[in-house]
Write a structure and sequence with these properties.
Elements: E1 4-5, E2 9-12, H1 19-26, H2 42-52, E3 59-64, E4 70-81, E5 86-89, E6 95-98, E7 102-112, H3 121-136, E8 141-147, H4 151-159, E9 163-176, E10 182-193, H5 194-200
Parallel strand pairs: 7-8
Antiparallel strand pairs: 1-2, 2-3, 3-4, 4-7, 5-6, 8-10, 9-10
Helix pairs in contact: 1-2
Length: 204
């Protein structure tokens, strides 16, 4: 089981006892990309915590050291890279295909209880989580999506040293308008490579 510790926070796998704290901010998740995580009851929250507890490597509760309260969450999902069909040769000279899928690129997401925003917790958690992914899990590249109106998340990506790689117009829809039509959102993509992270951290 992986645990990450910072000056004020502990990032650890979820527990069923986290249900009440998580329900506080998932009753009305923000921004729209998290609407699918909405919880309506403590029973739902307990079931969700039991499911999340199975992931002990890439899904963490953000916990205040001083109180033990869960104030948010951070996780990452892998993107499987299919390498080109290249051939190498074994000791006998026979051709061997190097075609094994590689999971070296991850996309993180983070969310904080609104009552704890503006205190630097998101950066503290994300900075430690990125270091964990790059240095302990051997990830090569991290990329993140954020809505064009989510300025807070954009600033966090930039503070983490990520580059803005693109803007996708009407990229995806998470909600519908009053008439039932999908509302498409403009989405920005940010990314950072392990070598860029190491240079930023002075670890080269």
């Amino acid at each position: 089981m992986s645990t990450i510790e910072t000056e004020r926070l502990i990032l650890r796998p979820f527990r069923e006892s986290d249900a009440a704290d998580v329900l506080e901010y998932l009753r009305k998740p923000e921004p729209n990309c998290f609407v699918g995580l909405k919880l309506d009851s403590l029973d739902q929250a307990r079931a969700e915590m039991a499911r999340r507890a199975e992931d002990k490597e890439y899904s963490f509760a953000i916990v205040l050291k001083e109180s033990g309260k869960v104030i948010g969450e951070i996780d990452a999902e892998s993107t499987t890279y299919e390498p080109p069909k290249l051939c190498s040769h074994d000791e006998t000279g026979a051709a061997q295909k190097d075609d094994a899928p590689r999971k070296d690129t991850f996309s993180p997401s983070w969310m904080l209880n609104a009552a704890y925003r503006g205190k630097g917790y998101a950066y503290e958690a994300a900075n430690a989580f990125f270091d964990y992914l790059f240095m302990r899990k051997g990830i090569r590249r991290i990329f993140a999506y954020t809505e064009d109106y989510n300025v807070r998340s954009q600033h966090l990506c930039e503070k983490l040293g990520m580059r803005r790689e693109g803007l996708f117009l009407e990229f995806v829809s998470f909600v519908r308008d009053a008439d039932g039509n999908p509302v498409y959102e403009n989405t920005m993509q940010y990314a950072i490579l392990k070598k860029e992270w190491m240079e930023k951290q002075g670890k080269v």
